[in-house]
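Could someone model pyridoxal-5'-phosphate with this protein?
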Amino acid sequence: MKKLIRNLMILLTVFCLLTAASAAPAEEEAEKVTIENVREYIVGLDEPLTLKDGTQRPMINFDNAATTPAMKQVMDEVNEKLLMYGSIGRGFSLKSNYSTDIYQATRDKVLSFVGLDPKEYTYTVFYVNNTTDGLNKLASALIESSDDVVLATRMEHHANDLSWRERCKMVYAEVDDQGRVIYDDIERLLKENNVKIVTVTAASNVTGYMPDVHRIAKLAHQYGAMIVVDGAQIVAHRAFSMLGETPEENIDFFVFSAHKMYSPYGGGAVIGLTDVLDQHMPAFYGGGTVQLVMDSKVIYKDAPAAYEAGSPNYPGVVGLGKAIDMLTEIGFDSIAEHEKALTRRMVDGLKAIENIRVFGDTENLDDRVGVVTFDTSDANTLELATRMADYDGVATRRGAFCAHPYVWRLLGIPDNEVESFEGCDDYKTPGMIRVSFGIYNTEEEVDEFLEALKKEIGEIKAHNAELDAKSLWDDIMFPSY
Ligand SMILES: Cc1ncc(COP(=O)(O)O)c(C=O)c1O
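Reply:
Sure, complex below.
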């Protein structure tokens, strides 16, 4: 009997403990962010805009290739880390030590993000404000003479063209009719010139094409050149490794901006071969870069310090690190899959609208990130994009997207004709409309966009028809002869 009572007591105790455990407030575990729920975590998506007709609605943001809104977790991390704000690498305080540790540790995170082993000394990360800043610093450091030859492609953003063009000789590999880089042309130019650096984008901001940069790396190395990859448009869209299948396919330098990956403006990084970086330095001088300054002599530090003159951008680096965590958590496979579905829906929807021309290969989208460009013979693209922003709350981009030579090629406008646009206003300068997706965009937004597009084309056509009728009437009533 005694034994039975004791067992009953034990059972009762276990039951009470279990009930208490389940009732106790559990440690609040952050919800895992996935491609399905990420929309809840993008800052400002529900912010209402007042449209020109007085109605209010949140914006459909299809301008993610320019910059992405911040993620809540990134914003929170930046705010939290500001509580322990201190001078980086210069101060003597616990806060200074704390922030310096985070600043330095984020370099390892960046290395892992691009497929590198932080324990290896082969590559070094230096921070920059954005891709343009990074490419200019790299060009400034690596170009030793105006006779150096850099090979770029006709697909490049101005950041990866002008940074080099203004400093040395350039040769450009052509693109084909659909806008893809011609690999044979790269090889021809490598054969014909003593190329020092090949520089190419990992994804175009105009067509979204992702050239095979590892194949290009192999070619560059075969001909004794180094390779720089502009990563601005790839980092928020696909997993990217600087390592190829063989060492010849490895990327030597990679540059990207954090504001295109759900962190606010200001962060960015260059990852490059340590021994090459250590042999050079950008023409950008000041505090933090030196070991000793004498009246007659300056002794500079090695990379990364030599590339980071001035007080570091701590919030930019914190945001960059957290953005990497968040994209990794969501997973690039699901990001790519989601983006492909949106791109297919948009391309097919656009093709179904009369007189719309979609640029690039619209059948095979496998080598494209979620960027779609188009124009129409029924409306001026500037007017159309403006109306869609003003009356439908849709954000796109219109113009030649800081990639003029590429856009003129896709539009079929030769250089001598382009010259005639000098001094023209934007309305008269040809341009396309660009739609670019982020992780939080939805198929419903694509459908809404297509409806708005049809409506605005209709409005513009009707308005133009009115103007034509009026001018015909004026011609009849008031002939100019
Ligand atoms: C392919 C590409 N490279 C470079 C840049 C320049 O980036 P940032 O403005 O962040 O310097 C951009 C910006 O849109 C881009 O799309």
